[in-house]
Design goal:
elongated; disordered N terminus; 8% helix; twelve-stranded antiparallel beta barrel; 378 residues; single chain; mainly beta; two-stranded antiparallel ribbon
């Protein structure tokens, strides 16, 4: 591998890690986007005509409230906190069109609950629920360097689409909010809606570099651009306060994520350990299209330790990102209200302490390794 190529990869890794801001996330509608591969190159490269099927499970409980980077511990002590339990399963299929080009399809499912006081007339705590198919994702990726000539490191770029297959108007019963305190059926909070209602464009990057016979560096970046501004689903937030009138309809926000770190092959056969940083965010404004409607912008920076077991066909990974810094920045409504009234305003959001990510991936080799493949882009 030449010095110029090594310099490019080192710069890409440094750029990915240096972008990790000291921020955090709340009950922000960050959709789950997973990868079923491991943290080294061999677990992510497929031979031409090879398949890989996988499942990734993710769980978190958010309950710690933040305004900006300031935590409000009284919400928990007073038992007024909002509690979200989120479970997501991504079932993926990857197919290698050549030694460098691959196609991916991801079928996601979610089960979510949300317990709160303020959504039920502030009189009693109740729980709303959502489940089902989330937003399906399809994509293509390409390794920039020939794996045969660059066996110790590579860089892949991906482009895809997110389809609005998930229900973005899931409803449940809300208590003490109708006429004379009667229950009403309303859309559940944006943070537990299975879908967002928009066609999205996804961009992603994967980077791997072997530093020694047992040590690897890895990095990744992901951006989901949602051109649609709002999805037409009512939030009922305008019933809480007149200043929330412009948050009466749900936004269709962008989101992005970065991760990077190091993986070490232990003396135990097939076992590697990793440690890195993970950053996920919903921005205040979108990259393409309008940014109106209701969204909770938020960011989380986590320390991510992990374990991976891998043989020639199967990869099993477990990582537990632990939140280090969390931030709920001012939304557009916060900024507009502050400018109009001259009074500081920053909405809050509930944040998780940690996530659990567990994945299993299995490779299926073609029946005849010499059979011609549909594409030859090497």
């Amino acid at each position: 591998m030449n010095t110029h190529y090594k310099s490019i990869l080192t710069l890409m890794l440094f750029a990915s890690l240096s972008t990790l801001q000291l921020r955090g996330q709340g009950c922000v509608a960050i959709r789950h986007f997973s990868s079923c591969g491991g943290n080294n190159l061999s677990s992510n490269l497929l031979s031409a005509g090879e398949w890989q099927i996988g499942m990734n499970y993710r769980y978190f409980k958010s309950f710690r409230h933040f305004r900006g980077t300031h935590e409000e511990p009284d919400r928990v002590s007073n038992e007024t906190e909002v509690i979200n339990h989120a479970h997501a399963w991504d079932f993926s299929v990857n197919y290698s069109l050549s030694n460098r080009m691959y196609a991916t399809a991801i079928l996601p499912f979610v089960v979510n609950t949300r317990s709160s006081l303020y959504e039920h007339g502030r009189e009693e705590r109740n729980t709303t629920f959502s489940r089902g198919l989330a937003d399906v994702r399809l994509g293509l990726g390409y390794w920039l360097f020939d794996p045969a000539r660059s066996p110790k490191g590579n860089l892949a770029l991906g482009l895809g689409v997110k389809l609005p297959t998930g229900d973005y108007n899931a409803t449940d019963i809300f208590y003490n909010v109708g006429p004379e305190g009667t229950p009403q059926v309303r859309p559940v909070d944006q943070s537990i809606q299975p879908g967002d209602g928009g066609f999205g464009i996804t961009l992603d990057l994967q980077f791997f570099q072997q530093l020694s016979p047992t040590l690897f560096a890895y990095a990744g970046a992901f951006y989901l651009a949602n051109p649609r501004e709002t999805n037409g689903v009512r939030t009922f937030r305008e019933t809480l306060s007149p200043i929330l009138q412009n948050e009466s309809i749900m936004s269709v926000p962008d989101q992005y994520g970065l991760r990077g770190g190091f993986s070490y092959n232990t003396p135990v056969p097939a076992l590697s350990v990793s440690v890195g940083a993970r950053y996920e965010a919903v921005p205040v404004e979108d990259l393409i299209g309008g940014s109106g409607g209701f969204r909770r912008p938020g960011e989380v920076l986590s320390l991510e330790p992990g374990l991976t077991l891998m043989n020639s066909r199967t990869t099993v990974s477990l990582s537990v990102p632990v939140a280090m810094l969390r931030n709920r920045p001012q939304s557009l409504t916060d900024l507009e209200t502050e400018q109009a009234t001259g009074q500081p305003r920053n909405g809050d959001a509930a944040f998780a302490d940690y996530l659990i990510n567990f994945s299993v991936a299995y490779r299926i080799a073609p029946d005849d390794a010499k059979a011609p493949v549909p594409f030859n882009l090497d």
